[in-house]
């Protein structure tokens, strides 16, 4: 199960897991230096926060990890399904070229050690995966648009293509995000999921408007690729309801901080 660190800065996944060669986490709002709606532990450069504050928060985050990473890889997400491979060639690029290659990326995979793959969310769903046999990690940003386009399935397909990953060897962590109760959507969003072939009775509920369960929609994608249900850990934390602890764009506005969810081989 997930576990909040004593300083409340991070939610750590699988602390009792036998896979001690990885570290998986999601940041909270606590213990950083950002102000206002970015208060206080925002590590995202793409949401309007002061760049110096973001850098200080990132330095702090790196110091809190069990092993200091060679790099925090944080893409500029656009709710699409581009999966970026992070390898040694990528790390050798200039910082400017790295930023270019991370533009429009919503998922990343890597087999490298001490490289922390990170995605940013503030109601969207972070999904972290580890192939325990091939030693491959993935970080996936699954908002509703990415979810309906099956970004989790596409990322696992990329892992299978490049590294020979099999679903049965994957451990997966679904982090804090908006819950079924809080995620009210219009008919057009419901219809998009229905058209994409999702099992709507399992992920949708009608109150005054439709509500969708993005946690379950992404869990079902993992299972469809052979991931065992006992190997999927769901944080079960709603960002909208717990916006004082975790950033929520629906509660705080788009110009607010972001949760950083990361996975690293050590």
From TrEMBL:
SUPFAM superfamilies associated with the record: CNF1/YfiH-like putative cysteine hydrolases (SSF64438)
Reaction(s) this enzyme catalyzes, per UniProt: adenosine + H2O + H(+) = inosine + NH4(+); inosine + phosphate = alpha-D-ribose 1-phosphate + hypoxanthine; S-methyl-5'-thioadenosine + phosphate = 5-(methylsulfanyl)-alpha-D-ribose 1-phosphate + adenine; adenosine + phosphate = alpha-D-ribose 1-phosphate + adenine
InterPro entries: Cu_polyphenol_OxRdtase, Cu_polyphenol_OxRdtase_sf, Cytotoxic_necrot_fac-like_cat
CDD domains in UniProt: YfiH
UniProt keyword annotations, A-Z: Hydrolase, Metal-binding, Transferase, Zinc
Membrane-spanning ranges: none
Signal peptide: none
Recorded GO MF terms: copper ion binding; hydrolase activity; S-methyl-5-thioadenosine phosphorylase activity
UniProt xrefs under Gene3D superfamilies: CNF1/YfiH-like putative cysteine hydrolases
Keyword Transmembrane helix: no
Similarity-based family: Belongs to the purine nucleoside phosphorylase YfiH/LACC1 family.
Protein name: Purine nucleoside phosphorylase
Gene source species: Phocaeicola plebeius
Gene: pgeF
């Amino acid at each position: 199960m997930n576990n909040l660190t004593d300083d409340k800065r991070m939610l750590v996944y699988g602390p009792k897991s036998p896979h001690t060669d990885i570290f998986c986490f999601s940041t909270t709002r606590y213990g950083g230096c950002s102000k206002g709606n970015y208060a206080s532990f925002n590590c995202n450069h793409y949401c309007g926060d002061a760049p110096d504050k973001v850098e200080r928060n990132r330095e702090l985050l790196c110091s809190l990890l069990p092993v200091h990473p060679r790099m925090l890889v944080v893409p500029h997400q656009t709710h699409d399904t581009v999966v970026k491979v992070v390898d040694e060639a990528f790390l050798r690029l200039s910082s400017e070229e790295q930023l270019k290659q991370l533009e429009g990326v919503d998922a990343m995979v890597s087999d490298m050690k001490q490289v922390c793959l990170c995605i940013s969310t503030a109601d969207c769903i972070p999904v972290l995966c580890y192939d325990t046999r091939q030693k491959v990690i993935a970080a996936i940003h699954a908002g509703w648009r990415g979810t309906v386009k099956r970004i989790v399935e596409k990322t696992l397909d990329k892992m299978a293509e490049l590294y020979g990953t099999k679903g049965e060897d994957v451990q997966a962590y679904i982090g804090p995000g908006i819950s079924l109760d809080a995620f009210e959507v219009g008919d057009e969003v419901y219809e998009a999921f229905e058209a994409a072939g999702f099992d709507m009775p399992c992920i949708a509920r009608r109150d005054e408007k439709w509500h969708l369960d993005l946690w379950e929609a992404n869990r079902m994608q993992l299972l469809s690729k052979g991931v065992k249900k006992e190997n999927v850990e769901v944080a079960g934390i709603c960002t909208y309801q717990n916006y004082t602890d975790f950033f929520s764009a629906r509660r705080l506005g788009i110009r607010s901080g972001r949760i950083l969810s990361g996975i690293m081989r050590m």
